[in-house]
Amino acid sequence: MNAPLFRRCLAELVATAFLIIIGCGVVVVGGQTDPLTHEGIAIVWGLIVMVLVYSVGDVSGCHINPAVTIAFAAAGRFPAREVVPYVLMQFAGATLGAAAIWSVFGVDSTNLGSTVIHDSLSPVQGFAIEFMMTLILMFVVMGVSTGAKEKSITAGLAVGATIGMEAMAAGPMTGASMNPARTFGPALISGDVSQVPIYIGATVLGGLTGMALYKLIGIRPEPKATT
């Protein structure tokens, strides 16, 4: 990683804020005007992740997700000493993004793009869905990313497509978070953090499991984390 830690953390802060502003913002705008289809919202989530990878992937790796950062570090693709700064900036960026939406629309927790487990599901079922979705996401990320520096057609398209497909599959059930920061920011600003522990536990564990599964299969040699 050639960029100083400050620049990389700033890139994670800004990119995660943009992720929330666009991803959650499209839900809010749809609620204020004509509701977008479920498929449309999923496509927007996939597209914003794709373009962010192309924008800051060569600076910070464009993790924009604490579960991804933690899993990369556990895999040896990211310096363990930099996990805390990255994760803090991701949570801060998500909170800033949610605050930006709130400052414009002043909406309540039902319209801030927050992730909630559907009433038809138990907390265990919601946990299982987020665990599986994050596992699949991290498995794909391991296959197309080094963890420290990315700007390739493969990474952006693959990760963006995965996010979009999983949002279509699990969005109506749990919001398809796959990202502790994505859940935390809107939940904190909306004033309802009751389900945040479920999402954090499921996504972090799912990310670690997806990483471990990829390493177990041993698809390609593991790149080493560099400073």
Notes on the protein architecture:
The protein is an all-alpha fold and 227 residues long. The chain has one domain: Glycerol uptake facilitator protein (Up-down Bundle), CATH 1.20.1080. The chain has helices at 5-32, 38-60, 66-75, 83-105, 123-144, 153-174, 180-190, 196-217. Helix 1 (5-32) runs antiparallel to helix 2 and helix 3 (66-75) packs antiparallel against helix 4 (83-105). The protein is globular and about 45 Å long.
Characterize this entry briefly.
The chain is mainly α. It has helices at residues 5-32, 38-60, 66-75, 83-105, 123-144, 153-174, 180-190, 196-217.
How is the secondary structure organized here?
Elements (H helix, E strand, L loop, with lengths): L4 H28 L5 H23 L5 H10 L7 H23 L17 H22 L8 H22 L5 H11 L5 H22 L10
Helix pairs in contact: 1-2, 1-4, 1-7, 2-6, 3-4, 3-5, 3-8, 4-7, 5-6, 5-8, 7-8
Q: CATH superfamily assignment? A: Glycerol uptake facilitator protein
Q: What class do helices, strands and sheet pairing give?
A: mainly alpha
Residue stretches low in confidence (pLDDT < 50, at least 5 long) are none
Distance between the termini: 5 Å
- Please give the largest β-sheet: none
| CATH-defined topology | Glycerol uptake facilitator protein
- The total count of strands amounts to 0
Q: How many separate structural domains? A: 1
- Tell me the fraction of residues in β-strands, as a range: under 5%
